[in-house]
C-alpha cells in the first residue's frame, strides 16, 4: 500500500516544540517527536515497550522521553535507560528510532530501512525558505486516501468547476494544451493556456486587465510530492519563450507573476492523510499582504478540494468495485499513480506493471 523506503513530511517545524512530545501517525505507524536540548528533532516509535502506552502522553527529561504510565525512560536512540524501582534494564527494552531531518520548515522522517536513509533524496522544496521567495502554508487532516489528493493535483481541469471564484475559469479546462512526460523517477504535466482571461486570483495578484498566457507545470515525485510552477504573463509578452520547462525561470517577470504551489501528502492510514502545502511567490516581496492574500485564495480553493476528496472516499467505500472511466485529461494522474505503484512493487518484490 505504501512506499516505505522514502522520506515523508511528518510535521511543520513549529509543531515540534522544546518541552513537549508530539504524536502523529504516519503510514499506519504511531510516531512520537520531540526536541533535544540543542533543538535537534528526534523521532521514535510512539509505543512504550512495557505496556504499550503512547509515549507522546509523557514528558521530556533532558534529551530523553519518559512514559507517563510507569516512568520507563528512553534516550534519543530508542534505548530504555531507566526503569523505576530496579537497577537493571531488561534485554530488548527499546523502541524503534526513525531517521529524521529538519528542512524547509518541515520535519522529514524515513519510514523504511534506516540503513538506506539518504538525506540527498529529500525532495527539493527550497522555495519555502529561499530569500528570493515568500511562502505561507498549512496542514489539513483529510479523511481520504493520499492517492486521491495526488490525482487531483495532477489534473487541473477541475479548476474550471470547483474553483471558479479563485484560480479557475472556463479556459482552464477548455483551452489548455497539455503534455505529459514520465521518467523513471517523476511525472511532469505541462499545461499552457494561451490568450485567455486571467482567473480571479491572478487578477488580484498581477493586476491583469486583458488576456494572459498562463502556464501550469505540475511535477509529481513518488511517494507523495507534487510541486507546481504556475504563473501568467500578459499575452504577447513572450511567456512560452521564457518558460521552456518546469522551474525553468525564477526571476521576477515584468508584466506577469510567477508562483510555486508546494504539496506533501503524507499517508496517515489507507484512508486518511496529512496534507501539507504552501504557496510561494517571487514578486512584491516587500508586501506581506500579498503573501497573505495568495495564501487565503489558495486556502479557499484547497478547502473546496478537501471536501471533494472526502466525498470521493465515502462514495468509493460504499461501492469499492464500481468501475471508473478514464478520459484524455486523466493522463497525468494515471501515469503518476502507475509510477507510484511501480515503486511500491519494486520495494515489495511484487510484479511490476
Please provide a written account of the structure.
The chain is α+β, with helices and mostly antiparallel strands and 353 residues long. 22% of the residues lie in helices and 33% in strands. The strands form 4 sheets. Strands 12-18-17-16-15-14-13 form a 7-stranded antiparallel beta sheet. It has a 4-stranded antiparallel beta sheet with strand order 2-3-4-9, with no helix packed on it. A hairpin with a 2-residue loop joins strand 10 and strand 11. Helix 1 crosses helix 7 (331-348).
A few lines on this structure:
The chain is α+β, with helices and mostly antiparallel strands and 353 residues long.
DSSP E strands, number: 18
The major sheet is characterized as: 7 strands, antiparallel
**Average pLDDT taken over every residue:** 93
Helical residues, percent: 10-25%
Write the layout of secondary structure elements.
Blueprint: E1 7-12, E2 22-26, E3 29-35, E4 41-45, E5 59-61, E6 64-66, E7 73-74, E8 80-82, E9 97-98, E10 100-103, E11 106-110, E12 134-142, H1 146-154, H2 159-162, H3 170-174, E13 176-182, E14 187-196, H4 200-206, E15 212-221, E16 225-234, H5 239-242, E17 256-269, E18 272-281, H6 288-318, H7 331-348
Antiparallel strand pairs: 1-11, 2-3, 3-4, 4-9, 5-6, 6-7, 7-8, 10-11, 12-18, 13-14, 14-15, 15-16, 16-17, 17-18
What distinguishing features does this structure have?
single chain; 353 residues; alpha+beta; Rieske Iron-sulfur Protein; Naphthalene 1,2-dioxygenase Alpha Subunit, Chain A, domain 1; 2 domains; 7-stranded antiparallel β-sheet; 4-stranded antiparallel β-sheet; 7 helices; 18 strands; elongated
Amino acid at each position: 500500500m505504501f512506499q516505505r523506503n522514502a522520506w515523508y513530511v511528518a510535521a511543520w517545524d513549529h509543531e515540534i516544540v522544546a518541552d513537549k512530545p508530539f504524536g502523529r501517525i504516519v503510514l499506519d505507524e504511531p510516531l512520537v517527536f520531540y526536541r533535544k536540548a540543542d533543538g535537534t528533532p528526534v523521532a521514535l516509535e510512539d509505543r512504550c515497550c512495557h505496556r504499550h502506552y503512547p509515549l507522546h502522553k509523557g514528558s521530556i527529561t533532558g534529551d530523553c522521553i519518559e512514559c507517563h504510565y510507569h516512568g520507563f525512560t528512553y534516550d534519543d536512540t530508542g534505548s530504555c535507560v531507566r526503569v523505576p524501582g530496579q537497577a537493571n534494564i531488561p534485554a530488548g527494552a527499546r523502541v524503534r528510532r526513525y531517521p529524521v531531518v529538519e528542512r524547509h520548515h518541515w520535519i522529514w522522517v524515513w519510514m523504511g530501512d534506516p540503513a538506506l536513509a539518504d538525506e540527498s533524496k529529500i525532495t527539493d522544496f527550497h522555495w519555502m525558505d529561499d530569500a528570493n521567495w515568500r511562502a505561507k502554508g498549512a496542514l489539513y487532516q483529510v479523511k481520504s486516501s493520499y492517492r486521491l489528493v495526488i490525482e487531483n493535483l495532477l489534473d487541473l481541469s477541475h479548476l474550471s468547476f470547483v474553483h471558479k471564484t479563485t484560480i479557475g475559469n472556463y479556459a482552464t479546462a477548455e483551452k489548455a494544451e497539455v503534455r505529459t512526460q514520465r521518467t523513471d523517477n517523476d511525472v511532469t504535466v505541462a499545461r499552457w493556456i494561451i490568450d485567455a482571461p486571467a482567473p480571479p486570483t491572478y487578477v488580484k495578484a498581477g493586476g491583469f486587465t486583458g488576456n494572459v498566457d498562463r502556464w501550469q507545470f505540475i511535477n509529481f515525485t513518488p511517494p507523495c510530492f507534487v510541486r507546481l510552477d504556475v504563473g501568467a504573463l500578459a499575452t504577447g509578452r513572450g511567456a512560452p519563450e521564457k518558460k521552456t520547462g518546469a522551474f525553468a525561470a525564477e526571476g521576477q517577470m515584468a508584466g506577469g507573476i510567477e508562483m510555486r504551489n508546494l504539496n506533501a501528502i503524507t499517508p496517515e492510514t489507507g484512508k486518511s492523510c496529512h496534507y501539507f502545502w504552501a504557496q510561494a511567490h517571487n514578486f512584491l516581496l516587500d508586501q506581506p499582504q500579498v503573501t497573505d492574500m495568495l495564501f487565503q485564495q489558495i486556502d479557499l480553493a484547497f478547502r473546496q478540494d478537501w471536501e471533494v476528496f472526502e466525498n470521493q472516499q465515502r462514495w468509493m467505500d460504499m461501492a469499492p468495485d464500481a468501475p471508473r472511466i478514464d478520459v484524455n485529461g486523466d493522463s497525468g494522474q494515471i501515469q503518476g499513480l502507475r509510477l507510484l505503484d511501480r515503486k511500491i512493487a519494486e520495494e515489495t518484490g511484487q510484479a511490476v506493471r
